[in-house]
């Protein structure tokens, strides 16, 4: 696992976007795993800028997002589908036919999770997976637990995640859902390459556990240490609790 400490989110976004753009320019039908949340937003802006300058086309990529809230339809401003449309896909030439999401609006969760697993497999696997990290060490919505999940599953969100994300729902007078569907740790670990982005003091504890702690499902991100190709981009604040390296 490479840990790269940079000054701020702008520097991180330049580096992270370059990796993704290079990947897509090398293999135009790359399979990219996307994350939502604040962490990758600047990176997505850099990709949009490159697209606008004609430096990259996203027309041929296949996308898989990590997670979706249960109960939200795609047009809900707080759905992750809407987030991706608003922050990246809708501002580039991404082909929405090749956009894959776990659906938060289904009757049969097991069928939906099996469908998503099969789709990832059929795509040939994820070339690059982008991740953020929760203050509690979650990746995707794999919350601290006593085991690592392999494939997609439904999860009850922890109070820490609800505390971190309920502001987005309160802003539009809604209550945050308590459940989400998420890719499992196995799905994330099967990606060929992983980029994790973390900024701000609130992530410092989780980054310390990820980089210096043991591999344990109590800090789901810690398993990334066992992956052969992970780059962790951190700013000075999120790296502030790391010992000398
Ligand atoms: C989002 C996701 C989450 C976030 C994490 C950090 O799709 O899977 O794991 O990456 O909660 O969120 P931010 O970036 O908003 O701090």
Describe the structure.
The chain is α/β, with parallel strands linked by helices and 245 residues long. It has one domain: Rossmann fold (3-Layer(aba) Sandwich), CATH 3.40.50.1360. It has helices at residues 9-26, 41-52, 80-87, 109-122, 159-170, 185-189, 204-212; strands spanning 2-6, 31-34, 62-65, 67-69, 99-100, 128-131, 153-156, 179-182, 193-198, 230-235. The strands form two sheets. Strands 1-10-9-6-2-3-5 form a seven-stranded parallel β-sheet, sandwiched between helices. A three-stranded antiparallel β-sheet has the order 4-8-7, covered by helices on one side. Strand 2, helix 2 and strand 3 form a beta-alpha-beta unit. It starts with a strand and ends in a 10-residue tail after the last strand. The mean pLDDT is 97. Bound molecules: fructose -6-phosphate. Residues 35-39, 66-67, 80, 132-134, 138-141 line the site of fructose -6-phosphate.
Portion of residues in beta strands equals 15-25%
The percentage helix is: 25-40%
Tell me the radius of gyration.
17 Å
Distance between the termini: 13 Å
Q: Biggest sheet, strands in spatial order?
A: 1-10-9-6-2-3-5
CATH fold call: Rossmann fold
